[in-house]
Each structure stands twice: as C-alpha cells, then as structure tokens.
Amino acid sequence: MTHQLINPDGLIPPVGFSHVVVAEGGKTVWLGGQTGHRADESIDADLVAQFAQACRNVAVALKAADAEPEHLVSMVIYTTDPAAYRANLKALGEEYRRVFGRHFPAMALFGVTELFDPRSLVELVCVAVVP
Prior knowledge:
By secondary structure, the chain is α+β, with helices and mostly antiparallel strands. It has one domain (23-130): CATH 3.30.1330.40. It has three helices and six strands. It has helices at 47-64, 82-87, 89-100, and strands at 4-6, 20-22, 27-30, 72-79, 106-111, 122-130. The strands form two sheets. A four-stranded mixed sheet has the order 3-6-4-5, with helices on one face. A two-stranded antiparallel ribbon has the order 1-2.
C-alpha cells in the first residue's frame, strides 16, 4: 500500500514537492519540529548543513515510529533566511534526496523571523502515514 501523489493540470509544475497526497489507511505519525541540532545539541552555522542534519533527524524520528521516508505525506519547512534557501536550492535538493530519495510529499516553505533556538536557520515539521 503506497500513498498517491497527485500533481493536477492547472497548477504550476511541482519541483521537489507534490501538490496533493492521498494517504492510504494506516497509522498517522506527527513529528515534532526537527532542526539541524545533533544529539549533543551542537549545530552548524551553515543553512545547507543544518538542513541536511534536520533531514537526518526526521529519518531518525520516523524510524522510532516504525516509519520510512516514503510514508511522509506532508513536510513544512520553516527558515529564517528564505533568500539563502532559494540561493542554495541545488545543494538543499541533494541533501533532501540523500535522505528521502525522490519521494516528495506535500510541502510548504515559510520564512520566519526566528526559531526557538536563535542559531537555528531551518526547522522541518512532518506528518507520515504508516500502512
């Protein structure tokens, strides 16, 4: 059983996300926001490095719930620097695919003034549905 990713005509072509996800029945898993912190609470100053670690943290959280990256149905990305995010799309995409492959759930990106830890430049909030 897999989730159905839909990208209807009439919307802009999606790059790195899906417009619609129809989740198949299963267990819903909500993940708390994952930042670029390592387990020892250290964090890099670089946006791409933080995003890469946040992706790895999402994968660890998913595994703890017996979930896999392909079970993601939604990802919200918060960043304190949208311009830097846009400037680094290629590197960010490479880091995303390193962890999640080519599974692109419904996504949104929001620019925010600050995250809980002022050193954080990015935070990922995800929902998964495990068949």
